[in-house]
Amino acid sequence: MRTITLVNGDGIGPEISDAVIKIIAASGLKINWDIQTAGADVVSEEGTPLPPRVLESIKVNKVALKAPVTTPIGTGFRSVNVQLRKALDLYANVRPCKNLPNIKTKFSDVDIVVVRENTEDLYAGVEHRIDENSAESIKIITRKASERICRYAFEYALKHKRKEVCVVTKANICKLSDGLFLECYRKVAQDFPRIKQREILVDNLCMQLVQDPSQFDVLVLPNLYGDIVSDLTAGLIGGLGVAQGANIGEYCAVFEPVHGSAPDIKGQNKANPTALLLSAVEMLRYIEEYNYADKIEKALYKTLKSGIRTVDVGGDATTEKFRDAIIENL
Ligand code: NAI
């Protein structure tokens, strides 16, 4: 039986993790979940929100499913998510955004994959206060990381039969940093003559995305733009409750939804487990359990088609009712 690390998170994390574990178990696939706690709740006992045991578990098991973990704003510990991605060198953050059945949004033809560089840019955490009235944050862009993520995006496009990889920067202003990212994209693109190239500035991309998202296919972006744009694309398909994600490295992979710990709805049986479930479906494909992945995805689609949806996407089902309906449809 395969062992997979489960970081069940905080906020709504434990509720949606519970739903997803039960759905996977009901599909017939046996997984030995190595449950690892992380975040604010473990700081008092272990002195850190990301104890070494969590990293060790993922290194040994190679694959993890992760629910969201709260990061305090402005002060306190560094984001567990950012630390995890850096420590395991999970350099590619992949966020597919495709319309789901019966979730009405302004557009019905969205099918975009956001490929975000995951290890550097302003998220390198190199910042300091200069004096009481000013602070400085350093944006790090390297050739190694930029070429690696652009190559990943083109290879992803080839593997998934996508037609275009569009690079997103602000190279007109950040001429050296984003300019280097763009230079790397152009170099890597030469190795993929069958995939169409496109270059766009991030502000124009945002405008185009809310006017006509159907024109975009695979997007590749530095870390910060990727973070923001992937929330925008999540909004195009029904919001954070349905937006899946994956952090891929050379040696391991962590699958997690785009959304955070949603403290505003914690413990209310209202959270939508779809984003975590779809992340788990991709995880099953990653470990080559294609039949179970397809079975669970079909049951989810059938449930949505039957009109059973959580509140965030226009329905009235609780997390548990939605979970049970998916299990029924398996
Ligand atoms: P959030 O994504 O937690 O919530 C934003 C809004 O979307 C809220 O109204 C929330 O109720 C709703 N929402 C999110 N997920 C939902 C779901 N599954 N079902 C129904 N509604 C859902 O973003 P926020 O409030 O900015 O962040 C809260 C905390 O989460 C912060 O500490 C942040 O740092 C952390 N965070 C963690 C992430 C991770 O662990 N990967 C990613 C993003 C944020």
Structure description:
- The protein is of the alpha/beta class and 330 residues long.
- It folds into 2 domains: 185 residues, Isopropylmalate Dehydrogenase; 131 residues, Isopropylmalate Dehydrogenase.
- The chain is 41% helix and 18% strand.
- The protein is built from 11 helices and 12 strands.
- The strands form 2 sheets. It has a 10-stranded mixed sheet, sandwiched between helices. Strands 6-7 form a two-stranded antiparallel ribbon.
- A hairpin with a 4-residue loop joins strand 11 and strand 12.
- The longest helix has 17 residues.
- The protein is globular and about 55 Å long.
- It starts with a strand and ends with a helix.
- The site of 1,4-dihydronicotinamide adenine dinucleotide has 20 residues, from loops.
Tally of DSSP β-strands: 12
The H/E string reads EHEHHEHEEEEHEHEHEHEEHHH
Instruction: Report the span from N to C terminus.
Output: 21 Å
The CATH architecture of the largest domain: 3-Layer(aba) Sandwich
C-alpha Rg, in Å?
Answer: 20 Å
State the helicity in percent bands.
Answer: 40-55%
